[in-house]
Amino acid sequence: MATKYGGYTGKILKINLSDSSYEEYPFSDRERELYLGGKIMAAKILYDNIKTKIKPLSKENILVITTSPLTGTGTPSSSRFNISSISPLTGLLCSSNCGGSFGFNLKRAGYDGLVICGKAKTKTYLNITNDKVEFLPADKLWGMTTGEAQEALGGKSGKIVIGPAGENLVRYACIVSEERAAGRGGLGAVMGSKNLKAIVAQGNFVSQAKDKEKLKKLSKKWVKKLKEHPLTGEQLPKLGTAGLISKMHFKNLLATKNFSYGQFEGHDKINGEYMAEHHLIKNSGCISCPIKCGRVVEVDGKQVKGPELETLGLLGANILNDNIELILRWNHLLDEMGMDTISAAGCLSFAMELNEKGLWKNELEFGKTDNIERIIKETAFRSSAIGNTLADGTREMSKKFGGEDFCISSKGMEISAYEPRSAVGQGLGYAVSNRGGCHLNAGYLVVLEGLGLSINQYTHWGKAALTVTFQNLMEAVSAGGNCLFTTYAVFPSFLIDKPNGLITRIVNKVMPYLGGVLYLALKFPQILAVNLPFILPHPVAINAVTGMKLNFGKMLRLGERGYNLERLFNKRMGVNASWDALPKRLTDELQDKNNPKSKVPLEKLKKRYYKIRGWDIDGLPTEKLIKKLGIE
Amino acid sequence: MATVKFFGLLRIQTGIAEAKAEGKTLKEVLYDIQRQYPSMTVKELKKKVIYVNGKDINQLKFFRTKINPNDEITIMSPVSGG
Question: Which of A111, A186, A566, B18 has the fewest CB atoms within 10 Å, measured from its CB?
Fold first, then answer.
């Protein structure tokens, strides 16, 4: 279906693995205006095609891979692509975003997205070249690690692959592209359940922007801004996300001993500084990214991807391990096995506490590290009783052994490394997030509550409105195709550069009281019908590429539409307010016995959040809201 | 003498992870650091996130915060992203 908009190929390919057929999937320009691309486009496709509750690992589940209008246009940090499906971990819609070159190459093949249905009769991989789709035998690839499989597939094409974890239906198996991963939610197991080992894409399509000159000028200024900003120009390239570990410790945000505490004595042995001083070989980045946040380290004489802060925190502080060399090894192993490091680590720490409390006698103990590598492998292959149990995730483990109060997950997804009792807005986000315990889908309020800025981390004031604003904005930026790290440059440099400056202190004090103003802006985004490219260049870039007429307000509305669409999909899967929950450890137990506010006041925050979202008391979008957003 | 620990880019750029410095107030300690390590100027150090015994100086008396010999001061470049 051709499109009048630039940036898109205008074609989405529907592939049926059951009978090895393929056809074009219809997607209109009206739908492009409403759902743009990436995760929102994928949510729309899933919403239109899955109308009842189904089993995530059945052939009825659909895997949707989407690019965005900015993918392949050379706009800064725009090589990302999205994979969505029903998650075997949560049973809900899950979108997982990935860097690397697959999105770029899928577009080169001439497709904005792939809709993969059915189940292949035998082990298969797909080779997509322009108009040709080949269904090829994957017997020789089956059993290979993600690195081995990519090497065996060879060539310069874009690839996504699963590892042994995906083949063995580990509920948090990921999908890997180069050294990057669509990590969360177990979408690798969905591929495995379809007997699909890999997808390869290549072609000759060249994405054309409507206004090339405007895009070129904007991209040049944007790259300069990203390079000059203290976060995207200095900290992320030099320390990576790992540079946050010690800051999290000092702010009581570093999940420690299965989220029992927010501080870890050994933080300075597992932080980005230590990694830079002892292990870093160089930094690396995705195509068209000037930030280059990736770490390259050495494991067994081989240059491999270094861990992100979530992995360092959860395989470090959260299991009481201060040996970074082990974390580098485990991180590489998990990538090779094709397993999400956050969920894998969450399962380990939960198992350790279950053992400590005598609820499940097993060989895992806090601080004991000599058996972890073996257990990771046993989990990926489901080759032992303990591995098979860990492979099903913490929610299933708690059904078996108890420990619900310290089962650190939301909607079945293990929570990432930020301890939310010292960032209650982040806690709200974890609970209401559409995909479960994900820090980004949560709204990432922790960036205001102690990382980038330092607003009061314990107050409930303003947190619901800020969460909704950030969720909507990040949803829209992701749908456009940019890496979310580009949004950090939205914060004026002086707020970051001068944390003790008068203006920063005033902003920190005042921001929680801006909830009312944000509420109005969210209710009437038309009052923000402006474009401020020096603050948020994203809609300006999308306009230059597509020829659409987005602005700040319309981006917020677009994000709101996406977030609500995902919620409506989840409603079909049974979600309501009772799903927006956190374990009692985070809502009822104080993190600091001397600070009565050091817990997440979830019910109070949820009530306000639903009101601002325009949801009913059961946490569901009202008919009026659905109509207003134009969701059909 | 107070113990001063450095984190973030400041530590990577200077190669200094830890130092000993003296002063009755935080401001004096910063001047002592500048004296010992001229590449770290007070003007630049004041732009960093600073904790005294784990407490943000925004919750204390900023650069007028009293320092005792056994205190631990943390000086950190601003960070974000995750």
Answer: B18
